[in-house]
Design a protein that fits this description.
101 residues, alpha+beta, Alpha-Beta Plaits, four-stranded antiparallel sheet, two-stranded antiparallel ribbon, 2 helices, 22% helix, 34% strand
């Protein structure tokens, strides 16, 4: 299961209807109106990243009143990976935190 937060910019005065409508859609865990640079933040989930992009996000971007979105995919902690290229091409590095004795 893949989860993501979708930051949504809406048309003027459209945030309440967008949040209410999105909260009822399949794949949405929550959708709330906010104050700040984005008008609505939705938490969504899908079976995999392809389904998230092809179905859930397309539905949100096609919603009346939605002008722009930014998607932040949740990264679940997993086993430590060896440093090296990841699937995105970025280099992963482990960080060791020292605590005072």
């Amino acid at each position: 299961m893949v989860r993501a937060y979708v930051l949504i910019l809406t048309g003027v005065g459209r945030a309440p209807e967008v949040a209410t409508s999105l909260a009822k859609r399949k794949g949405a865990r929550s959708a709330e109106q906010t104050v700040g640079p984005y008008d609505v933040i939705a938490q969504v989930e899908a079976s995999d990243l392809d389904h998230l992009a092809a179905s859930v996000l397309r539905d949100i971007q096609g919603q009346a009143g939605v002008e722009r979105t930014m998607t932040c995919v949740v990264v679940e902690p997993g086993p430590a990976a060896a440093p090296g290229p990841s699937r995105t091409g970025a280099v992963s590095r482990s960080t060791r935190v020292r605590t005072a004795p």
